Amino acid sequence: MSTYEVSVCVSFNASHSLPLGGGRMEDPHEHTWETTATFRSADVDNEMGVVIDFVAVREAMDAIASSLDGTDLNAPDSLNLPTTSAENVARFFADELQHKLTGQGVLYRLSVTEAPGCQAAYYPGDM
Fold it and tell me: Which CATH superfamily is 4-11+32-122 part of?
């Protein structure tokens, strides 16, 4: 079966820290979080001939990234995640993106690179 795949990338700067065990937290530090949303489909739509409109995806991702840019992801009013690991940030971003793009395509994968060579991915609906 043939498959089309498209990806859109955005980045934002934000700090976080992770629990180290025993009630200790690592020192807060900042990353440039590179975020990539990937959409897959067996077909393109008949009107535009695309899997999903790049412009719509870019606008939604830019809005999410802008809301996180310059923030402390651990702040109580931020993401409300159990930890701000790259895995959890990927899931948060994917959930927000799916909400913003309701009915405009199926998100296959959302990856977050928090440092060169360090990437986590979330696959909505898998498993």
Answer: 6-pyruvoyl tetrahydropterin synthase/QueD (3.30.479.10)
